[in-house]
Design a protein that fits this description.
The chain is an alpha/beta fold. The strands form 2 sheets. A 4-stranded mixed β-sheet has the order 1-4-3-2, with helices on one face. A 4-stranded mixed β-sheet has the order 5-8-7-6, with helices on one face. It is globular and about 45 Å long.
Length: 115
Amino acid sequence: MAVLDHVQVMMPPGREDEARLFYGGLLGLTEIEKPEPMRARGGVWFAEGIHVSGEEGFTPPRRAHPALRIGDLDRLAASLTAAGCAVEWDERWPGVRRLYTRDPFGNRVELLERE
């Protein structure tokens, strides 16, 4: 049986502070320390299974995205909007409230709450 361990999300190199502000500050994820041998390459890891890493020539994918289950989607939507992040609600999935936003690098992020 396979279990998802983490998802790697890319960004332009050297923008770790923006990753921390978005994923840690706005989304409330918990940063964890990368193993020593991997620190030289930069990037930021979060306990919830999101690893944000720099990539030369980065271009954000159009549709690929991580999806995070959130406890209070309305509160988070308000925080994202107040921070200047676009929020796109999607009501096509019965029993699930969800929205899409983009991180500072243009990566699509789905946030959902089951009713």
